Amino acid sequence: MDAKPAETVAASSTDKSTGASAPSHDRNGASPLKNPSEQRGAKRRKKTADPQLITRTIRNTPWGYLHLELTTTATTVPPLDILTARTSLTAALTQFLGLTGSAMPIDILKVEGRDCWIRVAREDLNAVAAAVGGWVGGGQADAVVGWRVKGKAGFLGELIGQALEREIWAA
Length: 171
Hints:
Strand order of the largest sheet: 4-5-3-7-6
Radius of gyration: 36 Å
Strand content: 25-35%
Order of helices and strands: EEHEHHEEHEEH
Number of strands: 7
């Protein structure tokens, strides 16, 4: 005995203009009466592959960062601003390295109290640290002004971490 698989008959709708009947669903279960924009959302999405973890090590960063503190022998210290910091940094670089030092680009990132955070090219980091750390300039009323290098790093996060580490062990 040959058994034929049972076929299911879908309900049909009747076209009013011709009187012909059309199935209400196609083989995939999509309704032919929906507009194409509604059918696109009904498609199954393919599963994507599991995400992969990709790691990279940045060995040669383009920038270097310095944390500086303005030191002075004066009893009253006026607040440090960006213009004063730029002027004294340029004076220190010019005194130590001449015209080459005055041409080094320096980005002042933050000035807070007597502290200053700067960004320089990685190739110039050691020269700037030596120039600024060894500079002694004249201040107001025979006071001596200089910079103390509190931190030097290849990443800004590392520089901030060094400052926080000093605070933990100083307390």
